[in-house]
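Exercise 7. Predict the structure of RRM domain-containing protein from Capitella teleta.
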Amino acid sequence: YVGNLDPTVTEDLLMALFGSIGPCKGCKIIHETGNEPYAFVEFSEHSSAALALGTMNKRTCFGREMKVNWATSPGTQTKQDTSKHHHIFVGDLSPDIETPQLREAFKPFGTISDCKIIRDPQTLKSKGYGFVSYVERKEAENAINSMNGQWIGSRAIRTNWAIRKPAAPATKETNAQPLTFDEVFKKSSPTNCTVYCGGILSGLTEDLVRSAFGEHGKIEEIRVFKDKGYAFIRYNTKEAATEAIVKMHQTEVGGHTVKCSWGKESKDSPADPNGQGQMVGSQVSQPSPASQGGYMPQGYGYGYGTSGYSGMPVQWQGMQMTPGQQQQYSAAAGQQQQQQQTGGVQYTMPQGP
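Solution. The predicted structure, encoded as tokens:
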């Protein structure tokens, strides 16, 4: 295995470079979207391969230090369908960790069907997380429980279930037409970059949300409401937020099927009088405010307004108030009335820097 290659490196160059150590049977460079190219070089003799491992590891080629290790699988192996396998998220990876090292660390727990580290498509640098897939669910569970907090390289890693499309039975909602980019984009103002993600009833953390939504664009901020089972993700562009809604709606995150829509962007964005908030498509069925503690996807709420705020008196009878006290009371009373009308105290995630 030869990693950390410059994108301009060719198979002929590697054959010439490694061929100086011993006869080579072949060379294959693998190009994957979002990942740095890597290669497999096959020698005619094991002794030559062992010599290459000691000689070529950390040798500079086109300004990059190559990483050479034993290959864990043949480079020409046909990629198998892993859609029904069990995928785990691995976070807090050291930037120098390569796919073979990640695979080797998780190999003791069972048969690994797929393993990859996610990289920035422009810089090709590691984003600090990856995914490992197992054929058996029990193997994946053991890996999550055993490897969480363990060290790989210079960092302690974090593990959790990764996202995947759920194999759910057909329902009215799942039979509906998939969301389209244009449809979602037009459902909110040009400046809205905030995505609502609901339905994660247990295990909700910022790390889980970031791992699930990070591949769709640069995330500026994440707000997690663990006890309510939802979170808000603010991207740096509306296009990235739109893609996240389209790709993530009705997918599985942390073992739960999530619903995604636009979050409210400002106080000027009107919420539905019934407390529902604007959804991104007719096929998106949103739980009622009562089931979410008075929360509205297009307006962040806490469950005060449905029953009133107990600390606010409706009226003060027989009391003399100074002008300043009267002004404070009027403002407070107005706030109470607004809470009762909207079904929640509004909280808005800031947009932009």
